[in-house]
Amino acid sequence: MDLQVYETAVEAAHACGLRILSLLEEALRASGGARATVAVSGGSTPKLMFDAMAAASGFDWKNVHVFWVDERAVPPADEQSNYRLAKEALLDKVHIPQRNVHRVHGELEPDSAAKRYREELREFFETGRDGIPCFDVIHCGMGPDAHTASLFPEDPLTEDRLGLAASVFAPKLPHWRVTLLPAVLLNARHTMMLVTGADKADTLHEVVHGEYDAFKRPVQIVQREGRNVSWYLDRAAAARITT
Ligand code: 6PG
Q1: Percent residues over pLDDT 70 in the chain
Q2: Residue 74 to residues 11, 79, 110, 175, 239: CA-CA distances in angstroms?
Q3: Residue 46 Cα to ligand 1 middle (Å)
Q4: Which residues of 18-158 form beta strands (DSSP E)?
Q5: pLDDT tens across 23-35, in order?
Q6: Residues with Cβ within 6 A of ligand 1?
Q7: Which residue of 42, 130, 135, 186 is 20 to 30 Å from 192, comparing CA positions?
């Protein structure tokens, strides 16, 4: 398990952000400069990560395409919008072409937003009907209930291994969301997990040391089955993990 533990949440988020940039640089190089793709999450932790990414000098966003791991069913200017968070903390501060920003249309009715997002993924990644997009980097968080993306405990979507994205009624506000599904999360070249705060310590212990039960602890899908998964933690979140 690639585990990076930092003293504070700010340090963990900064390190995670800079690592994402370096993975995107690698992806750009590997594609001869053509493009790199990243999907980001929402919540409270990513703000610090976006700050670090926005402040990094010399990174060229021209051919980077940004998607979302999940989105709440709210308009893009809403306080709760994951798009708004990334826009204000990062996208407005760097030179990224508008056509490279692939948001989920949270203002639509959730099923229609999910359908539109699936179409956008298929079209951009040219996967055809049944292919699975392959992101260069996916960034995820983890809730104290062990959810990741908007895959919550006991939701049948945790067992879906074919779909790309779906609408979901989450036990947490705002309830309606659109989320990437396990097939897409697991097909990413790199997954960066950014988890901070003492309220995550017990859950992280169960996730890492407990038996595999993705229905109960959806984040274990990524933790146990993902490729190149790196965890960026602060000391408080890492308090109960033994390595
Ligand atoms: C969201 C998310 C969600 C998030 C976790 C962790 O929209 O809520 O993308 O999956 O990553 O809830 O959130 P925090 O970083 O706020 O703890």
Answers
A1: 100
A2: 30, 9, 9, 10, 35
A3: 8
A4: 36-40, 64-68, 70-72, 101-102, 137-140
A5: 999 999 999 999 9
A6: 41-45, 69-70, 72, 82, 141-143, 147-150
A7: 130
